[in-house]
Amino acid sequence: MGTSPTKRTLAHFRRKEWDAEKVEFWNAAAQQSHDFLGFGDVVVFDEDRHRLMILQVTSYSNIAARVKKIKTIRRRIALKWIDFGGLIEVWGWKEYDKTAMEGDFIGRRWRPRIVPIKRSDLSNEQKTLEF
Questions:
Q1: If you count DSSP H runs as helices and E runs as strands, how many of each does the chain have, helices first?
Q2: What DSSP state is assigned to residue 98?
Q3: Is the pLDDT of residue 125 over 80?
Q4: SS3 for 20-46, per residue?
Q5: Per-residue pLDDT tens digits for 72-82
Q6: Among 15, 33, 59, 99, which lies 20 to 30 A Cα-Cα from 108?
Q7: Residue 102 main-chain phi, psi, to 5 deg
Q8: Interatomic CA distance for residues 61 and 107, integer angstroms
């Protein structure tokens, strides 16, 4: 079994010497995982933008489903997170044939596609019930 998207994400931020913490947890009694605020796997102190960032991390093939979940089912709480100054990103990890030659992932074959979720992405979405 390979390294999980969460472990890859945490390793990336350790290399950058940024503070990041896993915030999803496993509920053994219910046999299911619970994301922070219903969509967060990792919280990061973004040193470049001086903001608190919450990440939904996943495989590359599941990016669209995770973005849709934030924009619909978790829309209200995502708007609140952004309105309080936080950032939201979905990171979908994929292994490439060649290593990155530049940027944050130089020398790496595994790299994420990063999809930022902005307030404008959430404001026009259809409201749905939250559970």
A1: 4, 7
A2: S
A3: no
A4: EEECCEEECCCCEEECECCCECEEEEE
A5: 999 999 999 99
A6: 33
A7: -155, 170
A8: 23
